[in-house]
Every structure is written in structure tokens, then in C-alpha cells.
Design goal:
Neuraminidase, disordered C terminus, 7-stranded antiparallel β-sheet, 5-stranded mixed β-sheet, 4 helices, disordered N terminus, mainly beta
């Protein structure tokens, strides 16, 4: 039976969370308000397979073939695998080549792709495990010109088997074929703070129109344009070198700074569309399965409906929602499939349904949101009852309903 919140009961819960929880002053300023269609907390995962507390869980992934949740237990450098009952089954670490995991993906054949940063003896790499969780091969970046300093953070695989890898050190997402051979870099172009590339308003409009605000960059291009100030082949002469009688300060010749943007996460939907998330611009760039740019959405800022430091995204093709985790605002922003903002979930806090620097999100087969709540040192599983047609509001947030079960021992 659906629980209905009356105004009096809403006030009681608001008083309870804001007034009873010790040291909740920060929570008070940004605490979620309850809505007619609340978020329900299904479970909170706090233990690993040894019964020890999770330490800074940094990334999550749901394998819908085996119905399992993969959690990177960042403070211990291990990956813990949970069943659909939210209890741990096993974990893997250095014995399977996992020493510095950053992100995970599991394909339809059960192969596990682990993005790893540099460790004492190995460079940044993608470690591929077979379905039995034994190392199969590693993909490195030393032979990719301009990407030798690249650190992979997240990976997704499209319907055609192509891998899209997001990370630090290269502007754009590295694209590999199904065998791990490097193809190119899919790099959205946008206005970027601090870059030196200039383009006129007319040229920018032409560049963005018709799906042209991206570039497939070859290895040679990356070598020439990697790092800060990439895009130098488009560099305009400095204003002091242009004859003053040819400088026009009209609206149509106003200049913008435009360059390839960095990508921190990547995802694909059921139809094969590709979604690239940029922490740098606080935008999501959407591509067709054949990598044609479709549209982008998102706005940078610190208020409701804007992204401050987006870190992760997930696409719910069934319910027509796109979810983006904002690390600095401690929220999950909800968009429809056209990129229109609907609402956001959470706020900074320590109780169920609140977050303390969330870093990663995935969806299970039931559409539950699974969120790595980094500094609360837990993983939260939430049921969303948000409707795609729900009108957006610049100030509303969705809060939790009820209290979740916190697994403490395996049910008999």
C-alpha cells in the first residue's frame, strides 16, 4: 500500500532529520524536502565480504546478466561483488591483477573491464578479466601518441562492441574496437575556460549546427594538441597583430574560446546512443551509435538544476531518465531523454537518502539507483518514483521515504 505523507508528518520527519541527528548543521542548509512522489531507500550497503566496513567506495556497476553489483572499495583497493540481496559474495584484488581500480564495466559475455591508475610496477591500464574473474589481457596507452599520460576512469561498451574510455590526460573519450585496438578519440568541442583557441560567433554557430560540435581526433592530432591549449591549429592571431581597422566589435564577430573538452564518464543507452559527461563544462554530449553528434545539455553552477562537479551518469532507457551525480552539490540530477531538467535527489547529509560527496551511479534491472556515497563510506540503493513528465522546479529536491534495511548478516 502506498504511503501518503501528510503535511504534519512531513514536518515531523523534517524536524527529526534536521534537529535530532547530531552535528547536522551542514545538512540543514541543503536538506531534501519531501515530494508527492518520494525516493524510497531500499538498502544501504556498508560491509565488504570480510565483514569489515566499506572504506571510501568510489565506483559502482550493475551486471544485469548475473544480477550482481560491483563496488570498488577504494580504501582497500579491492572490488567487492554483491548479489541482488545486497550481501557480498566475494572480492578480488592484487591476486587477480587489481591494485588500483578506478572504474568497472561487465559485458554481456561476463568479461570484466577494470580501469586502473598507475601502480608501483604497472602503468595506467584497462585490465580485462574473463567470466571466471581471471586476468585475460591488459590494454595500455603507451603506444597511443599523445595519450601516454592518460589515466582511465570509466568505460562503456556500445552495441557494436566499441569501447569508450573516459579519463584524465586526454581531451575526449578514447575509442577502441572490440579487440582493444585503438581507433580514434571522440572529442566534443565546446567553449572552455582558459583555452587560447578563438572562433567567431558565426563560425561557432556553423560548427555546432548539424551535429558538428565534435571531432574524431587521430593519434597524430592528439600528439600535436594534447594538454592545455589543445587545438592550436585553430589559434587565431593575437588582437595586437591584427590591423585595428579590421577589428570589429559587433555581436556577429564576438569571439569565443573553443576547444576539445575533457570527459570523465561515458554511458550508452539501449538503442546504442553514446553519452559523454564533462566535469570541465558540466555538460552531457549525446551521440548516435555511429558517433554523430545529436545534442548536449547541462549548465555549470552551484544552485538547484545546475552541475558543479559532475562525476558520473546513468541512463534509464525504460523509464526515459538520465541521472547525473554531482560530487560537490551532493545530489543526483534527473533529466528526461531530451536533456530537460526534471528535478534532483538528495543534498548533503548523513541519514538515509542524503549524500556526502557521491562519486558514481548505476542502475539495476529494476531501475533502482545504486550510488557510491564516498565520504559516508556506503553504497545506497534507491527506488525512484519520478515521472518523466514531472515539471522541473528550480528549488525542489526529492527526499527519502521510510527507513532502509541495513544488511548485517546473510539471511537464512
Amino acid at each position: 500500500m502506498k504511503r501518503i505523507f501528510s503535511p504534519g508528518l512531513t514536518a515531523f520527519w523534517a524536524f527529526f532529520f534536521l534537529g535530532v541527528i547530531p552535528g547536522c548543521g551542514l545538512c540543514q542548509a541543503s536538506a531534501p524536502t519531501f515530494d508527492a512522489e518520494p525516493i524510497k531507500v531500499i538498502a544501504i550497503i556498508t560491509k565488504d565480504d570480510q565483514g569489515n566496513p566499506l572504506r571510501f567506495p568510489s565506483s559502482v556497476f550493475f551486471d544485469d546478466v548475473m544480477d550482481e553489483i560491483y563496488v570498488i572499495n577504494g580504501g582497500r583497493g579491492r572490488i567487492v561483488i554483491y548479489g541482488n540481496d545486497y550481501f557480498p559474495r566475494l572480492s578480488i584484488g592484487a591476486g587477480r591483477g587489481i591494485t588500483s581500480p578506478q572504474g568497472i564495466y561487465v559485458d554481456r559475455c561476463g568479461r570484466v573491464y577494470v580501469c586502473q591508475s598507475r601502480s608501483a610496477k604497472k602503468p595506467p591500464r584497462i585490465t580485462v578479466l574473463n567470466a571466471a574473474l581471471f586476468p585475460e589481457k591488459e590494454i595500455t596507452f603507451k603506444d597511443i601518441p599523445g595519450a601516454r599520460g592518460f589515466t582511465p576512469l570509466n568505460i562503456t561498451i556500445n552495441k557494436n562492441g566499441r569501447m569508450y574510455v573516459a579519463g584524465h590526460g586526454v581531451n575526449g573519450a578514447l575509442v577502441f574496437d572490440s579487440e582493444g585496438k585503438f581507433l580514434h578519440i571522440l572529442s566534443p568541442m565546446d567553449r572552455v575556460i582558459g583555452e587560447k583557441t578563438e572562433i567567431s560567433r558565426d563560425a561557432l554557430k556553423k560548427h555546432l549546427k548539424g551535429g558538428n560540435n565534435s571531432s574524431k581526433i587521430s593519434g597524430q592530432d592528439v600528439q600535436q594538441n594534447s594538454g592545455k591549449g589543445s587545438g592550436k591549429h585553430l589559434l587565431a592571431p593575437p588582437p595586437e597583430l591584427i590591423p585595428k581597422n579590421k577589428i570589429k566589435k559587433t555581436e556577429e564577430t564576438e569571439t569565443f574560446e573553443i576547444a576539445p573538452v575533457s570527459i570523465i564518464d561515458a554511458a550508452c543507452d539501449a538503442d546504442g546512443r553514446i553519452y559523454l559527461l564533462s566535469e570541465e563544462t558540466s555538460k552531457v554530449y549525446v551521440y548516435s551509435p555511429d558517433e554523430k553528434f545529436l545534442f548536449s545539455f547541462g549548465h555549470k553552477g552551484g544552485s538547484s538544476g545546475k552541475m558543479s562537479r559532475p562525476r558520473s551518469l546513468a541512463v534509464d532507457s525504460k523509464r526515459k531518465h538520465i541521472y547525473v551525480v554531482d560530487y560537490m552539490r551532493h545530489t543526483v540530477l534527473v533529466y528526461n531523454m531530451h536533456g530537460k531538467y526534471i528535478t534532483e535527489i538528495g543534498g548533503m547529509g548523513w541519514g538515509p537518502g542524503w549524500f556526502n560527496y557521491p562519486t558514481s551511479i548505476t542502475l539495476d534491472s529494476k531501475g533502482h539507483l545504486i550510488i557510491a556515497d564516498l565520504f559516508n563510506q556506503r553504497v545506497q540503493v534507491l527506488e525512484s518514483r519520478i515521472k518523466a513528465h514531472m515539471p522541473s522546479s528550480g528549488s525542489s529536491t526529492i527526499g527519502p521515504q521510510g527507513s532502509p534495511p541495513v544488511p548485517s548478516e546473510k539471511p537464512k
